[in-house]
Specification:
The complex is a heterodimer of chains A (380) and B (475). With 380 residues, chain A is of the alpha/beta class. Chain A has 9 helices and 18 strands. Chain A is globular and about 60 Å long. Chain B is 24% helix and 26% strand. In chain B, helix 6 links the parallel strand 19 and strand 20. Classes of the chains: A alpha/beta (380), B alpha/beta (475). At the A-B interface, helix 7 of A face strand 6 and strand 12 of B. Bound molecules: flavin-adenine dinucleotide (2 copies) and FE2/S2 (inorganic) cluster.
Chain lengths: 380, 475
């Protein structure tokens, strides 16, 4: 392993991979990614791959819109088919209150230039003919949302980054950070020490532990989320569906499998990622309630991963007061895959030119001192 | 074609019924699986991949997904384990099947029950374990996904040997019948009951079991897992062609359903399975071109080898199958000599005229259930692949969960039975029964069985497993 590097990135999930690529593209190539296990072993390789822009806070909407622009051309740019299917997101509502929340959300989204719109149950049926429209009071739809294969995305970013000189150190865990005079001067790992220019904390649900090594407290908590995949069937839905009523999400992969999950509000924070029978039963029930025809399919696998959840369900991005070369890139609260390309751009602007964009200002760790107004649609 | 005359087996066939395959009526017998009935009617190509390549039966035990078809409008049905019914509508697929848009899920019956103990798998290991539990007053529930109980045993027409003294000379299927008669009626034994998962919910262990059309949720503190093994595949051009089968599938077709698997076979692998199945093919009236074996030595017992050699079948060591020929199904195969590195030697290729290539190239332990439950696993090549770590008394890293038979490392029916007994005794002693003597005796018998030259590999494998178990590590 190198003795020093301009930028040390902790974590080879989509965040670390996208940032390494973005930096290398701009000529910052003395970059090392330290990964405790292997690329995609964290939340990224366990996620649903959903890419949506229909959020309720301006920052989440903006980041997602920027990201979608990147995802649209990424296959070509990286030379890897990332299996981006831009079939839109259909967001289901079942009550009048949910409908009201959707009206507000769409108004804000339209204001920011997002082509999302409200649909009646009948109109939702046009988007997804196999939907049981009697289950909903309405939906919203944004045709430019979509989904992609997270393994392909990370593989593409890392291959290009490596080609330009970035080093990816697998099975190398960060074990300590030495802070002197307000800077991280050394990173201790399971296979030696390294002196960093800047250190990026992209360790997903373990970012709290990394931050603590530098004496920084993050408000993030790890929360298990479960997910399952079925056997493949002939492609019939390019739209990704989520419901703000119960938090279910599902889409069809390019191979034809239905991948999706559902969250539980009573899930206790912690690092356990075992699979539960409760999940399987609730997910199957809700999935077939919305799309009864899916009852024909057998579940092939179920697994779980960790959301890295902040008090306002928005990420923690940018520099850390008190430790000047320590950059946060975590706290995605369940939607880090979709915004990774945009986050990489903002962070690279900061690392390269010292520019702190409005987004970085607003989503800085410092915000937790103030009153919190959070993201309302926390689904996949 | 169905076997009408067999030197050992008698096929008791069910009622005659008719179903349709791609619109064409097919005659079958009740009790047959869809794939077996189609096979008997001469249908080899069951479905096609997206690119149009033909797909047929391969494992016949529901493990490989090579036989998926659309049945009564439901896509991706495993036809090798689905029984035929009068009037069924069976269709081939191209790529993954199509959803039936009009499908509406029925309310499924969900039954919650508590079991004194659970045994998963009714092969020799599971049945032997059940017998010991019964003897000590515990009535377990036994689940097996197969419509026929007895595991691998029901396909064995030969007289077993190398097994325990009292079983020597008994034919495999008879051993199964004997074991079954001792446990059925006493323990609750459910067939077509697939254990899908083992969960820890609210501090309890719960098994999810798909039993025909019901979902059973079975709470049990102690579980013996005896799920057996599944066949290994071999890589060569043409291996996807209908007519390339696992040896187990050929046995199932011939000896369970009485269906002729082909006219002339090439057997790949001269271990016991390859040798015995070659003999069974002859019993079913199928010619055997040759047995090829990549290693310099025959892997199986020499009596089995001698038996088929006497019947004029060459056993070619240092030979392998290079490719299977044919467009829609196997029409021939190319075999060749191999060098020390097991690579084919150019110039030694030879075409053989066969319509059946039978792979007997080894088994992998079926360990999905234990992996899913969170048991620690390790890769131990001597035992056939990834196996759950366990103590010499068959307890896994999950206290109260035991493992026995082929899923704890590929062995034989005799060792499987002893491991089953040992697992049951461990379970009993966990409950406080004083069984030290009996346990030691069983463990000793097991050790003795592994003393011979054929026992060296599994013995070494088991030593590795026990050491890893003690050290607390593993993959
Ligand atoms: C079930 C599920 C479904 C989801 N669905 C979606 C979705 O549809 N759309 C979406 O946008 N998001 C989704 N998410 C969220 C998304 O997966 C995450 O926000 C995103 O993957 C985070 O990426 P990351 O690179 O920041 O973190 P991770 O992918 O978790 O990567 C962090 C890496 O850091 C490594 N690491 C940890 N500690 C150390 C250490 N000490 N030293 C070195 N390396 C270390 C880990 O091994 C890991 O590889 C989902 C998440 C889950 C769990
Ligand atoms: C051709 C051949 C010849 C052989 N000859 C001999 C011989 O001469 N002497 C000898 O000692 N041994 C012989 N054997 C080996 C012997 O048959 C096996 O070692 C033995 O059957 C292993 O027993 P088992 O109980 O572990 O597994 P199996 O017999 O494979 O039984 C496992 C059972 O578990 C069930 N199952 C699996 N998963 C699930 C699930 N999730 N839910 C419910 N049920 C499940 C299966 O349906 C199956 O019935 C031979 C094997 C073959 C193939
Ligand atoms: S699953 Fe049916 S042949 Fe293997």
């Amino acid at each position: 392993m190198k003795r020093c590097a301009d930028v040390v990135i902790i974590g080879a999930g989509v965040t670390g991979a996208a940032l390494a690529y973005e930096l290398a593209k701009r000529g910052i190539r003395d970059v090392v990614i330290l990964e405790r296990r292997f690329p995609c072993s964290g939340a990224t390789g366990r996620c649903g791959g959903g890419i949506r822009q229909q959020f309720t806070t301006p920052h989440n909407i903006r980041l997602a819109m920027e990201s979608v622009k990147r995802y649209e051309t990424l296959s070509e740019e990286l030379g890897v088919d990332i299996e981006f299917i831009q079939g839109g997101y259909l967001i289901l509502a079942e009550t009048e209150e949910e409908r009201e929340a959707q009206r507000k959300a769409v108004a804000l989204q339209n204001e920011l230039g997002l082509p999302s719109r409200l649909l009646s149950p009948e109109e939702a049926l046009d988007v997804l003919p196999l939907l049981d429209a009697s289950t909903i009071t309405g939906a919203t739809y944004c045709p430019t949302d979509g989904h992609a294969n997270p393994f392909r995305v990370v593989e593409g970013f890392l291959a290009q980054a490596r080609r330009m000189g970035v080093m990816v150190e697998k099975f190398t865990a960060v074990t300590g950070l030495v802070v002197e005079r307000g800077r991280i001067v050394r990173v201790h790992t399971s296979s030696g020490k390294i002196s960093p220019g800047a250190v990026v904390n992209a360790a997903g649900a373990w970012s709290v532990e990394i931050a603590r090594m530098a004496g920084v407290e993050l408000p993030n908590v790890p929360v298990r989320h479960e997910i399952a995949i079925t056997e493949p069937v002939e492609f019939f839905m390019d739209v990704m569906v989520i419901s703000i009523h119960n938090g279910i999400y599902f889409s069809q992969t390019k191979e034809g499998q239905i991948i999706g999950g559902i969250g539980f509000p009573d899930e206790k924070p912690g690092y356990v990622i075992s699979s539960s029978l409760r999940f399987l039963r609730v997910y199957a029930r809700e999935l077939t309630r919305y799309v009864p025809a899916l009852g024909q399919l057998a579940v092939l696998r179920q697994w779980a991963g960790l959301y890295d959840v902040t008090p306002d369900a928005q990420p923690v991005l940018g520099p850390t007061p008190g430790v000047e070369n320590f950059i946060q890139a975590n706290g995605y609260s369940g939607h880090g895959f979709m915004i990774a390309p945009a986050v990489a751009k903002h962070l690279a602007d900061y690392i390269e030119k010292g520019i702190r964009s409005e987004i970085l200002e607003k989503l800085s760790i410092e915000r937790f001192k103030e009153e919190i107004r959070g993201e309302a649609f926390v689904v996949g | 074609m169905r076997i009408e005359q067999h030197p050992i087996l008698e096929f008791r066939r069910g009622r005659r019924i008719t179903f349709t395959f791609d619109g064409r009526p097919i005659e079958a017998y009740e009790g047959e699986t869809i794939a077996a009935a189609l096979h008997a009617a001469g249908v080899r190509v069951l479905s096609r991949t997206r690119s149009g390549a033909p797909r047929g039966l391969f494992c016949a035990i529901g493990k490989c997904s090579s036989c998926l078809m659309t049945v009564d409008g439901i896509p991706n049905v495993k036809t090798c384990v689905t029984p035929v019914r009068e009037g069924m509508v069976v269709q081939s697929q191209r790529g993954p099947g199509r959803l039936n848009p009009d499908f509406r899920p029925r309310e499924r019956e969900v039954r919650e029950l508590r079991a004194e103990a659970v045994v998963v798998g009714a092969g020799p290991a599971g049945l032997a374990a059940t017998r010991v539990l019964l003897r000590h007053g515990i009535k377990p529930i036994v689940f097996d996904e197969n419509p026929h109980l007895g595991g691998q045993l029901i396909k064995q027409t030969h007289k077993f040997f190398g097994s325990r003294a009292e079983r020597a000379g008994v034919r495999g299927f008879s051993i199964a019948e004997e074991l079954l008669s001792e446990v059925e009626g006493e323990a609750e034994v459910l067939r077509q009951a697939r254990v899908l998962g083992l969960y820890f919910e609210d501090g309890k262990r719960v098994l999810a079991v798909a039993h025909t059309d019901r979902l059973l949720l079975v709470e049990a503190e102690e579980i013996i897992v005896a799920t057996g093994a599944e066949e290994r595949f071999l890589l060569f051009p043409g291996n996807h062609l209908p007519g390339v089968y696992g040896a187990g599938a050929v046995q199932t077709l011939m000896n369970v359903y009485g269906v002729v698997p082909g006219k002339r076979a090439l057997m790949v692998g001269a271990g016991n399975v390859g040798l015995i199945v070659s003999y069974q093919l002859l019993q079913a009236g199928v010619e055997v071109e040759a047995v090829v074996e990549a290693m310099p030595e025959i892997g199986g017992y020499h009596v089995h080898a001698a038996k088929i050699r006497r019947l004029g079948i060459p056993i070619l060591t240092r030979h392998t199958v290079v490719r299977a020929l044919g467009g829609e199904r196997v029409e021939g195969a190319v075999i060749a000599q191999v060098d020390e590195k097991l690579s084919p030697i150019p110039g030694t290729e030879r075409e053989v005229s066969v319509d059946l290539v039978c792979l007997a190239t080894g088994l992998n332990p079926s360990t999905r259930l234990l992996e899913q439950a969170g048991a620690r696993m390790a890769y131990v090549p001597e035992l056939g692949g990834r196996v759950p770590l366990h103590t010499p008394h068959m307890e896994t890293t999950l206290p109260g969960i035991y493992v026995a038979g082929d899923c704890a490392g590929i062995g034989e029916a005799s060792t499987a039975m002893l491991e089953g007994e040992l697992a049951a005794l461990s379970l009993l002693s966990r409950r406080g029964l004083e069984l030290g003597g009996e346990m030691e005796a069983t463990r000793k018998s097991l050790e003795k069985l592994r003393l011979g030259p054929f026992g060296a590999r599994p013995r070494a494998g088991k030593e590795k497993v026990f050491a890893l178990m003690k050290g607390g590590s593993g993959g």
